[in-house]
Amino acid sequence: ENSITEIMQGKADAALDAIPRSKLPLLQTDDKWKPYLHVHAQARTSYLWMNTGVAPFDNPKVRQAVNWAINRRAMVKLGGGSGIPSSTILPPNVPGYTGYEPYPKQDLAKARQLVKESGVKPGKVVLWSSTAPPSPEMAQYVQEQLKQLGFDVRTRSVDSSSYYDIVGADTTKAQIGFASWGQDFPEASNFIDVLLNGVYINPKKSNNLAWYHRKDGEIAQVNQLLDLEARAKAWGRLDREIVEDGAWAPISHGVQRNLVSKRLGGYVSHPVYDLLFAQATVDGSGTNNAKTHEHEAAESNPDASKDGEGS
Asked: Could you tell me the CA-to-CA distances from 88 to 67, 72, 180 in Å, in that order?
């Protein structure tokens, strides 16, 4: 809130955090500020992880049921308007992305049928989230969807500073919760290998929050591929197989919005590093054409300006 206000007052030059929901409508519609709101796709995925080592999510049909039960578009809107709904692990701007959506829309009837087929008697489930908005609101939404599948769901929110320490510890036996991951480098292994390879599970603090290890052999094989096209194709296949198995219920891929001051020029958005400060000017000598740098995904997908990610 303060950063946007200071930019409007000419006291600051760039806001790289998510635009607050209270400010976004004005910035999107005000002709005076629209040219200074830069929009581009992020290589980021927000998702629900399900612990494949504990009940009831040790059953793949229950995990698949969760994927069918959630309305990703609704969750994106709850998230504040900075994402594109998707049921894939890999974002569109990462090699290996195929565009295939394993769970294209909400289907509660199919979700209930899968729970019935699983043979699992719905019982108590604890859904984890951080206290940072909009996580609590999204947790309430998922709580209601899981209740419709027959589960007795309780939400548990912890401070963001300790969230991953708690849910990533084996002793917690956390069943299901929210997470968000942005790339460290533009390669699919930074998602699938780092987050879903059982080899890297750390009992004290694991990035593999699904405690997933069913594709370790295939991941090792793909990591050995040197042909980039074959490698990307293999990661895309694993993306589909892992999501169909329900290790995650992906929610969305990120869309970043950066507001800059009227005096800032030379805006360049990098897919990994965001704003390239070395290219920017604040003496009025640069150009400030927002449309030049908007990511084509945001242009071609009208929902990208309205829907948001949850994390």
From this structure: 11, 11, 13
pLDDT in 10s for each residue of the chain, 311 residues: 899 999 999 999 998 877 887 888 899 899 999 999 998 888 999 999 999 999 999 999 999 999 999 999 999 988 877 789 999 999 999 999 999 999 999 999 999 999 999 999 999 999 999 998 889 999 999 999 999 999 999 999 999 999 999 999 999 999 999 999 999 988 999 999 999 999 999 999 999 999 999 999 999 999 999 999 999 999 999 999 999 999 999 999 998 889 999 999 999 988 778 899 999 999 766 555 444 444 434 443 434 333 333 33
Dihedral Cα 196, 150, 115, 76, nearest 10 deg: -50
Asked if 221 contacts 81 with a C-beta cutoff of 8 angstroms, the reply is: no
Q: Which residues contact 47 (CB under 8 A, 6 or more apart)?
A: 89, 178, 179, 180, 181, 248, 249, 250, 251
* CA-based end-to-end distance of the chain: 19
Dump the DSSP string for 64-114. HHHHHH--HHHHHHHTTS-EEE-S-SS-TTSTT-----SS-S--HHHHHHH
Strand partners, 130: 158
Q: What six digits make up the tokens of 242?
A: 């892992």
Secondary structure (3-state) at 298? helix
How many other β-carbons are positioned within 10 Å of the β-carbon of residue 126?
15
